[in-house]
Amino acid sequence: MSTPEPQPIMLPFSKEKISALRSGMTVLLSGSMLVGRDQVHQRLAQLIEENRPLPFEITGETMYYMGPTPAPPGRLIGSCGPTTSSRMDPYTPLLMDHGLTCTIGKGPRSSAVRDAVVRNNGLYLYAFGGCGALYAQRVVSQRLIAFENLGPEALLQLEVKDFPAIVGIDSLGNSVFS
Length: 178
Hints:
The chain has five helices and seven strands, in the order βαβαβαβαβαββ. A five-stranded mixed β-barrel has the order 2-3-4-5-7. The longest helix has 12 residues. The protein is 22% helix and 27% strand. It has a single domain, classed as Fe-S hydro-lyase, tartrate dehydratase beta-type, catalytic domain (fumarase). By secondary structure, it is α/β, with parallel strands linked by helices.
Protein backbone atom coordinates (compact mmCIF):
# COMPACT_ATOMS: atom_id res chain seq x y z
CA MET A 1 0.00 0.00 0.00
CA SER A 2 1.51 3.33 -1.02
CA THR A 3 1.46 6.49 1.03
CA PRO A 4 -0.66 9.30 -0.47
CA GLU A 5 1.26 12.27 -1.86
CA PRO A 6 1.36 15.34 0.40
CA GLN A 7 -1.29 17.94 -0.40
CA PRO A 8 0.23 21.25 -1.57
CA ILE A 9 -1.46 24.15 0.24
CA MET A 10 -1.17 27.87 -0.46
CA LEU A 11 -1.59 29.99 2.67
CA PRO A 12 -3.83 31.50 3.80
CA PHE A 13 -6.17 28.50 4.03
CA SER A 14 -9.49 28.65 2.24
CA LYS A 15 -12.52 27.29 4.11
CA GLU A 16 -12.99 24.75 1.29
CA LYS A 17 -9.43 23.43 1.67
CA ILE A 18 -9.80 23.19 5.45
CA SER A 19 -13.03 21.22 5.04
CA ALA A 20 -11.33 18.79 2.63
CA LEU A 21 -8.39 17.93 4.91
CA ARG A 22 -8.59 14.98 7.31
CA SER A 23 -6.48 14.01 10.29
CA GLY A 24 -3.41 12.05 9.28
CA MET A 25 -3.05 13.70 5.85
CA THR A 26 0.33 15.23 4.99
CA VAL A 27 0.47 18.79 3.65
CA LEU A 28 3.17 21.02 2.15
CA LEU A 29 2.51 24.65 3.06
CA SER A 30 3.62 27.60 0.97
CA GLY A 31 2.90 31.23 1.75
CA SER A 32 2.81 33.41 4.84
CA MET A 33 2.50 32.23 8.45
CA LEU A 34 2.94 33.88 11.82
CA VAL A 35 5.37 32.63 14.45
CA GLY A 36 4.85 32.96 18.19
CA ARG A 37 5.29 31.13 21.46
CA ASP A 38 4.09 31.48 25.06
CA GLN A 39 4.85 35.15 25.64
CA VAL A 40 3.36 36.23 22.30
CA HIS A 41 0.17 34.30 23.02
CA GLN A 42 -0.10 35.74 26.52
CA ARG A 43 0.27 39.28 25.13
CA LEU A 44 -2.24 38.70 22.32
CA ALA A 45 -4.78 37.27 24.77
CA GLN A 46 -4.28 40.27 27.06
CA LEU A 47 -4.86 42.70 24.17
CA ILE A 48 -8.08 40.87 23.23
CA GLU A 49 -9.29 40.79 26.85
CA GLU A 50 -8.59 44.54 27.15
CA ASN A 51 -10.44 45.15 23.85
CA ARG A 52 -7.28 46.70 22.36
CA PRO A 53 -6.19 46.24 18.73
CA LEU A 54 -3.85 43.42 17.78
CA PRO A 55 -0.59 44.28 15.95
CA PHE A 56 -1.86 42.35 12.88
CA GLU A 57 -5.13 41.13 11.37
CA ILE A 58 -5.65 37.69 12.95
CA THR A 59 -8.52 36.55 10.72
CA GLY A 60 -7.49 33.65 8.50
CA GLU A 61 -3.94 33.45 9.87
CA THR A 62 -1.83 30.39 10.62
CA MET A 63 0.38 30.48 13.74
CA TYR A 64 3.50 28.29 14.02
CA TYR A 65 4.68 27.65 17.58
CA MET A 66 8.42 28.22 17.27
CA GLY A 67 11.30 30.38 18.42
CA PRO A 68 14.23 30.27 15.97
CA THR A 69 17.84 29.92 16.97
CA PRO A 70 20.24 32.62 15.74
CA ALA A 71 20.92 32.45 12.01
CA PRO A 72 24.32 30.99 11.10
CA PRO A 73 26.47 33.13 8.78
CA GLY A 74 24.97 33.26 5.30
CA ARG A 75 21.59 31.87 6.42
CA LEU A 76 18.22 33.60 6.70
CA ILE A 77 17.17 31.86 9.92
CA GLY A 78 18.54 29.36 12.38
CA SER A 79 16.99 26.06 13.34
CA CYS A 80 13.24 26.53 13.62
CA GLY A 81 11.63 23.36 14.87
CA PRO A 82 8.23 23.29 16.59
CA THR A 83 7.52 24.01 20.24
CA THR A 84 5.23 21.84 22.36
CA SER A 85 1.72 23.00 21.50
CA SER A 86 0.06 22.33 24.86
CA ARG A 87 1.90 25.36 26.29
CA MET A 88 -0.34 27.55 24.09
CA ASP A 89 -3.57 25.69 24.98
CA PRO A 90 -4.72 28.31 27.53
CA TYR A 91 -4.74 30.97 24.77
CA THR A 92 -5.63 29.08 21.58
CA PRO A 93 -9.44 28.92 21.97
CA LEU A 94 -9.62 32.70 22.51
CA LEU A 95 -7.38 33.39 19.49
CA MET A 96 -9.34 30.98 17.28
CA ASP A 97 -12.62 32.55 18.39
CA HIS A 98 -11.16 35.88 17.20
CA GLY A 99 -10.22 34.57 13.75
CA LEU A 100 -7.02 32.50 13.95
CA THR A 101 -7.56 29.63 11.49
CA CYS A 102 -4.71 27.20 12.01
CA THR A 103 -1.99 26.42 14.54
CA ILE A 104 1.16 24.38 13.98
CA GLY A 105 3.26 22.73 16.67
CA LYS A 106 4.10 19.37 18.16
CA GLY A 107 2.22 17.09 20.50
CA PRO A 108 -1.43 16.61 21.44
CA ARG A 109 -3.89 19.40 22.26
CA SER A 110 -6.49 19.82 25.00
CA SER A 111 -10.17 19.11 24.47
CA ALA A 112 -10.80 22.89 24.68
CA VAL A 113 -8.50 23.42 21.67
CA ARG A 114 -10.13 20.55 19.76
CA ASP A 115 -13.54 22.12 20.46
CA ALA A 116 -12.26 25.53 19.25
CA VAL A 117 -10.93 23.94 16.05
CA VAL A 118 -14.37 22.44 15.35
CA ARG A 119 -16.31 25.56 16.40
CA ASN A 120 -14.21 27.76 14.10
CA ASN A 121 -13.75 25.35 11.15
CA GLY A 122 -10.00 25.42 11.78
CA LEU A 123 -7.04 23.06 11.88
CA TYR A 124 -4.18 21.95 14.06
CA LEU A 125 -1.13 20.78 12.13
CA TYR A 126 1.56 18.63 13.64
CA ALA A 127 5.13 19.63 12.76
CA PHE A 128 7.96 17.14 13.09
CA GLY A 129 10.10 17.50 16.21
CA GLY A 130 13.84 17.27 15.60
CA CYS A 131 13.54 18.74 12.09
CA GLY A 132 14.48 22.36 12.85
CA ALA A 133 17.22 22.42 10.21
CA LEU A 134 14.82 21.06 7.58
CA TYR A 135 12.20 23.68 8.46
CA ALA A 136 14.84 26.44 8.28
CA GLN A 137 15.50 25.42 4.68
CA ARG A 138 11.81 25.97 3.91
CA VAL A 139 11.85 29.63 5.05
CA VAL A 140 12.03 32.09 2.15
CA SER A 141 11.82 35.31 4.22
CA GLN A 142 11.06 36.57 7.69
CA ARG A 143 10.04 39.87 9.22
CA LEU A 144 9.32 41.19 12.69
CA ILE A 145 5.63 41.97 13.35
CA ALA A 146 5.56 42.89 17.07
CA PHE A 147 7.01 42.45 20.55
CA GLU A 148 10.64 42.98 19.51
CA ASN A 149 11.67 43.04 23.18
CA LEU A 150 10.97 39.28 23.34
CA GLY A 151 14.05 38.63 21.19
CA PRO A 152 13.86 35.24 19.46
CA GLU A 153 10.34 34.80 20.84
CA ALA A 154 8.99 37.97 19.15
CA LEU A 155 6.01 37.75 16.82
CA LEU A 156 7.37 37.07 13.33
CA GLN A 157 5.95 36.52 9.89
CA LEU A 158 7.59 33.83 7.77
CA GLU A 159 7.21 33.19 4.09
CA VAL A 160 7.64 29.43 3.53
CA LYS A 161 7.78 27.05 0.59
CA ASP A 162 6.90 23.34 0.83
CA PHE A 163 6.78 23.33 4.65
CA PRO A 164 5.77 19.76 5.65
CA ALA A 165 3.21 18.96 8.35
CA ILE A 166 0.52 16.43 9.24
CA VAL A 167 -3.12 17.30 9.93
CA GLY A 168 -3.26 16.61 13.67
CA ILE A 169 -6.85 17.77 14.28
CA ASP A 170 -9.19 18.35 11.37
CA SER A 171 -12.21 20.67 11.20
CA LEU A 172 -14.50 17.82 12.31
CA GLY A 173 -12.46 17.19 15.48
CA ASN A 174 -10.82 13.98 14.29
CA SER A 175 -7.38 13.69 15.83
CA VAL A 176 -4.26 11.64 15.19
CA PHE A 177 -3.73 11.71 18.95
CA SER A 178 -6.84 9.70 19.91
